[in-house]
Amino acid sequence: MKIPPLRVDNSTESFYGNLMVWEQYCHPPNNTFICDYIFLMAYLIKSVKDVDLLVRRRIIVNQGSPDAIVALFNRLCKHIRVEKNRYSDLFMKLNEYNAVRHHGWIAILKLKYFSTPWKGVATIAATILLVLTLIKTICAVISL
User: For 64, which of 20, 57, 68, 127 could close a Cys bridge (C-beta 3.0–4.6 Å)?
Assistant: First the structure.
């Protein structure tokens, strides 16, 4: 899935707020593309770390503080009437995926310990060293 980029500046809230009001009251519920997109972004943005990730991935072009962006999406989505969102299936699949514990562990492993090639090599070397130390300890205990 590719998310189109969003430029965030001083006029973003009023611009999208007006578009969302217009879309909700002038279009049938099936054609709320802007409301659905803003709702998707609000679903993805829960903290400053989420904003930083989206800025790094060039999904958000930021001209403000990350805290202000989190607050912006919270304010925009406060007044959205959500009956059926075109991303509802995606939300359900993401929640199901995140409910499985080992998916979170794998993500942490990738982000923390294998984010660069050197971190990956160091992690593997430390694991091998730990296993060899454990084997040496077991052999020492057995020989007593």
Answer: 68
Residue predicted with more confidence, 98 or 50: 50
Q: For residues 117 and 73, what is the distance between their CA atoms, to the nearest angstrom?
A: 35
Q: What is the DSSP letter of 9?
A: S
Report the DSSP beta bridge partners of residue 62: 8
Amino acid at 6: L
Q: Roughly how many angstroms between the first and final C-alpha of the chain, as a whole number?
A: 59
**Exposed e or buried b per residue across 69-103, where buried means at least 16 C-beta atoms within 10 angstroms of its C-beta:** bbebbeebbeebeeeebeeeeeeeeeeeeeeeeee
DSSP letter string over 84-137?
--TTHHHHHHHHHHHHSHHHHHHHHIIIIISSSHHHHHHHHHHHHHHHHHHHHH
Mean pLDDT of the chain: 87
Whether 15 shows a pLDDT value over 80: the answer reads yes
